[in-house]
Each structure stands twice: as C-alpha cells, then as structure tokens.
Design a protein that fits this description.
71% helix, globular, single chain, mainly alpha
C-alpha cells in the first residue's frame, strides 16, 4: 500500500460494516462508561486542588496512590480509546487473516492502555508535589511563571519533528501493524499495543501536561484535549490541528506570564 493510501479512513475498508460497527461501538461504549466515572470523580473532587492554577483557590487534598492511579486509568480510557479506532480495526483485520480470535485485538488494546496507565506515576508524583505547596504560593511570582512556562513548552512541542514523527505513526495503521505486529499470538499483540501506546504517548504527552496546570480533573479542558487528540489522529490535516493547538498554548502561556491573574481563571 502506498503511503498516501495508509490513512485512518482506509482502515474502515478492511472489514465488513458489521465488524466495523461492533469494534467501534465497543470502544465508544468503554469510553462512555469511563467518561461517566470520570465525571463523577471530577464532581466529587470539585473543591480539591488538582492543578497548579488551583492552588490558593481550592482545598489541598490527600489522595493515595491507588485511588489516584485508578482515577488516571479511567481518565485515559475515556479520552484515548475512541481516538485509536482505526488502529484497532487494522490490527483486528490482520489478526482475522491469521486465524486469530478477538482475544488478540483485546490484548492489543490492553497493551496500549497499559502504557498510559503506567505513565500515571508521573502525574501522581506531580500531584503529591504541588499538594504540599501552601496557599501563599498563589500570591508568589514564581507560580504563574511556572505555569506559563509549562504551557509555552507544551505548545512548542507541537511544532517539533518528534511530534510529527509520532503523529505520522499514529496515522499510518497499515504500516504500524506490518512493522510491529508480524507474529501470531496474544503476547505479540500485547507488545504491539504497548508500542503503539508509547508512540501515542510521544504524540500526546505535551497536551496531557497542560492538565497539570489547569487541573487534572478539569472536565472542560479534558473534553477539549480529547477532541484535539481525535482530530489530530484521524484527520488528514491533523498536524495542522496540532500546530493550531500549540500556538494557542504558547499565546496562553505568554498571557499568563504577563498577567498572572489569568491563571486561576483558566483553571476554574
């Protein structure tokens, strides 16, 4: 297959419409269940500091590792599962050709989610870090400076060659499956899913870091970031969308550096 034909849209031509519906509906159903749980968690934590911009305006909380990571895993399932539908379809098509059952594709999705779950240790450490800062930090010069710098760095990453490389991999389901899923078996599918998860992480980590500024459970920002991810991965002009988002983050970061009072406003 030519590179210009290896697109997320083309993955829907590999299987019958019935199989496509079953796979897509399953991913969306899992995502909706996770979104429901995420919304409930966000509402229960509405008064808790979950981001740098909320320090001094909400109550500091104490969340254990198990509770936090469970929240994070649910969040990732909600935000990421619908974005990988073409890759899952491509994997399932190849698995069926090899005579494998749906268990192989389930293992692929599990490997993908494992990577996003494991990376939750980093936001956990960040949460434990800023949970120790007193309300006085909100009146300091360095807190908005830190937040603004994070946003600028996150926005700048959207223009890097590494971002483009990872996004290209995420938008090329046939090449990915041919390169990383060339053997039979659940273990190989799990490994391929983990590799795709790592590439997806390379593509999306910067936008996720933004939640550490505006609030890890900020539903408005979560929905916005999810939509950006979905468009980036599934639209032929996804890189342009990534750059628009990057430019917007840079502008917001500069604005917060210039006007620190903006930080709590964007973190509500």
């Amino acid at each position: 297959m030519k590179s210009d034909q290896d697109t997320p849209r083309a993955a829907f031509d590999l299987l019958s419409w019935r199989v496509n519906v079953v796979v897509v509906v399953a991913l969306i159903a899992l995502s909706l269940i996770a979104w429901r749980s995420t919304i409930d968690q966000a509402q229960s934590m509405r008064a808790m500091v979950m981001g740098i911009g909320q320090i001094g305006y909400r109550n500091q909380g104490e969340m254990g590792a198990v509770v936090f990571l469970a929240m994070w895993i649910t969040m990732m399932a909600a935000m990421m599962l619908p974005t990988i539908a073409p890759m899952v379809l491509a994997h399932h098509a190849v698995a069926r050709q090899r005579g494998e059952s749906a268990v192989s594709t389930i293992a692929f999705v599990a490997g993908y989610l494992f990577v996003w779950s494991a990376i939750g240790v980093l936001p956990l450490l960040a949460y434990w870090g800023f949970a120790q800062w007193s309300d006085d930090a909100a009146q300091s010069w360095w807190l908005p400076a830190l937040a603004g710098t994070i946003l600028i760095v996150a926005g700048g990453y959207q223009f890097t060659s590494w971002k483009k490389l990872c996004l290209d991999k995420c938008q090329s389901p046939f090449m990915f499956v041919a390169t990383h899923d060339y053997r039979r078996g659940v273990v190989n599918a799990l490994r391929a899913g983990a590799i795709h998860g790592a590439l997806c992480l390379g593509c999306c980590w910067a936008m996720m870091v933004v939640l550490g500024v505006v609030g890890l459970m900020n539903l408005l920002w979560m929905v916005g970031i999810f939509l950006i991810f979905f468009v980036e991965k599934n639209w032929k002009h996804g890189l342009a969308m990534a750059k628009v988002a990057g430019f917007a983050l840079i502008i917001l970061g500069v604005a917060i550096l210039a006007h620190p009072a903006l930080l709590p406003l964007v973190s509500q």
